[in-house]
Each structure stands twice: as structure tokens, then as C-alpha cells.
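Q: Start with the shorter request: fold the first protein.
A: Done. Sequence, then structure:
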Amino acid sequence: MKKFTRLLWGIVLAVAFAMPGPVFAEYPEKPITYIIPFNPGGESDVTARLQEPHLEKFLGVPVNITHKPGGGGAVAWSEFQRTAKPDGYTIIGCNIPHIIGQPLIRKEAGYTTDGFKIIMWFHFTPNALVVSKDSPFKTLDDFIQYAKAHPAAVTVGGSGTYSANHLEALRLEKAAGIDLTYVPHTGTGPIIPALMGGHISAAMTYSMVGVNYKDRLRTLAVASDERVPALPDVPTFKELGYDIVGGAFRGVAAPLGTPQPIVDKLAHAFTETNKIIANKQVGLGFVMTYATGDEALKLVERMRAAYGDVLNEIRQKQK
């Protein structure tokens, strides 16, 4: 009997030690670091601040937001893939098409599109072409006609390179037959003072900027299939004759190798949080999404295909 008991305990211990860490410790047990790869004040930061208290409620630990701007997100994403431990205590905001375009076009990006364990894609923000209230451009046609008459003279700010903003500016150039000068910024936050201060002619930014600064900025067009509810008087590019639809999907990722039970717990917390903050986000110009698991991966593949043509054109020009 004793021999059988020892054998039984040996089997139990062997199985237990073969199981992942959560058998011994209930995740999470300590604060979680949530990295935002852009400056404070932009869409990613605003969203994280809305998420923070609800994530803390669902996860039961503090969620510490930290900013690591640079390279349109590439600085933080490359460091994350190099150094973050797959234990669920470091997560990072991710953007499409940034994480698709940057590694494809820039050899020095330092990270790969598939080097993240996507937890969830939680919203989409249409691109928007915005100018200051005192700009001579009252309409999109004003903007395009001036750009045609003054090649490369119109400066357009945006968040990062090979990002949603940058790629949309390139698509507008092609669709309208104009030549713009794109000015990359480290995030949406710095674009606002640059625009208001007259340092750039316009910004290819996101619908949230048009909503938040509607008293000081003028939105000429939005890159969505239908008008944004929070900007009902702003036409779409499609209405004005330009087949331009695009923007940024935002989500959150863990390092590759993070145990699936941890990813699932984080996905649940973000999903429930999304439901709570949805009304506020929609009012700011966001479109809510709930892509987790296989759906999150399928979204990456769909957008990789959607931006394929413009990215391949850029690659050909670089050769």
C-alpha cells in the first residue's frame, strides 16, 4: 500500500511540474505594465486611460501605463519583441497598418508583424484630413487644386512612417494626382500644436482629432465608407469622388510564448472593458471591434492584403 501511495504521489507531482506556472500561482499577482508606443494625448493614450480603471477591476491588480514614443511605434515594438518576458506582466498597444508596413518597408524596423501574440483588436479609427480653422482650404477641392498648382509645397503631418496616416497620404496623392510633402511625427499628440502653429499645412490624422478639436480645426474629409456619427457634417472621400477608405486598427499584444490561459484572461478583461467604454469611444469617433483569437489573426491577414498594393509600390520605388 505504501509503495502504491508513493507511486501515486510521484505521478501527481510529475504531472503538476509539467503544467504551466498558473497551476501554482493565480495570474495576475502583481502590477501589469501597459506600454503605449506613442506620445501622451493621442488616440492610443486616450483609449488606454479609459481602459485603465476597468482593466484593474477585472484583473484585480494595478495596470501601469507607460509611454515609449519613437519611429511611429517602431522603437517600442522592437524593444518589446527583444526584451519582454512572456509572463503576462508586460503588454503593448499595437496598430494596423503600422505593424504591417514598417517591417515590410524598413529593414531597420527591428521587429516583425508576426512577432506579437495578439490579445485583441478593440477599435478602428478612420483617417481624416484636417486643417486649422484659419486655413485657406475650406474644402477638399480647395486643398487638391492648390496642391496641383504647387507640387510638394503642401506639407501634411501624420503619425509615423508607413503608418495609417502615411499610407493614406500616399493614396490621396495617387487618387488626386498631386504631390504632397509628408512630415512624420512621433504620434498624434505632437501633430495638434504643429497644425495650430502653422508648421504644417494640414494633417492626415484620425477622426478623433476632428471631434476633439472641432472648434479650432476643420476636417475636410474622412476615409470611411459612411460619415462618422460624431462628425455628421464632414463628407467622406468617397462622396467627393476619391475611393479612399482606411484608418488604424488598435489593439493590444503580449510577447510570443505567453501561455494561452494568460492571453485568454487578458482578452476577457479587454473585451468586457470595451463594452463599458464603447459609448464614450464612439462619441470620440472610434468604431468598436472585438477581434480576439483566430479572428485577431484573420484581421491582420485581411489588412496585409488590403495594403499590399501601396506597400509594394513603395518597395519598388526604393529599389
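Q: Next, the second protein, separately.
A: Sequence, then structure:
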Amino acid sequence: MKKMKLLNLSVLVIIITTGLLSCESDEGGNGTNISAFSITKSHNMGQNCMECHRQGGPGYGWFNIAGTVYDSQFTGTYPNATIKLYTGPNGTGDAKYVVEVDGKGNFYTTENIDFGVDLYPAVVGTNETHYMSTAITTGQCNSCHGVSTNRIWTN
């Protein structure tokens, strides 16, 4: 009888442990996660942030736009710049969204971004503003920049 109770208890412990270990990481989930000037909690500069920061991914917050800004020599990141998404090319139209670049050169937001309208990015540094001449259809900036096209940069 004692052996049977011990066996049942062991099976119960195994089932509970397996259930707990199969849950997603506590760090994942869709919470608010927005970059801000001088904050240095971000990581993985230059990588596609949305590989992890997406529904079902291990990163905290499901990003709607994210990327990394570099200096003009592409040797280091450019912290504390600003990303603006305009409704017209080359800074025309309205600045519909503004995202601060953090202290490590990364920008990201979980705020809703409507990609159903034309959005034209601009990166604003201390001395220059650079415009992307084509409208974007996704916020995964590092999936192209640094892979199939130049990195995002400013001065």
C-alpha cells in the first residue's frame, strides 16, 4: 500500500513538473516595451528584433517596429536619435509616429503602427536627417538593413 501511494505521488510530481517546464518563458508575452532616450536595457544590436519580440516568441513585448541606428562609419551604434514615420516621402506629410532611439542605438515599440497607409521613415541625428525614399510595409527594419541593404545610419 505504501509503495502504491509513493508510486502515485511520484507520477503526480512528474506530471506537474512536466507541465511547468513546458510553459513559455516568463519573460515573453505582449506587454508594453518602448525604447526611450538614454535607456540601455536593450540588446542584440543589428539583429532582427522581431525574431524574438513577436507573438509566441521569448522576447518581452511584441514589437511593431524595431531596428538599430549606426554612426556614419558603420563602426558603432548611434544612441539617442529619433525615428519618425511620415505620411509622405522625404519628410512630407504628417509625422504620424515618433520613436526614440535608446542609449544602445536600438529603437522599438509595442504601440500599434498602421502599415495600411504609406509610411516613410526618417532617422534624425544631431546633425543630419536621413529619409527612406520608399514606403515601408513592415516594421522589421533589421530584416533588410544590414542584410540586403545598408544599415540605418545618421550623424
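Q: Describe the second briefly.
A: The CA atoms of residues 30 and 61 lie 4 Å apart. The chain has one domain: 28-153.
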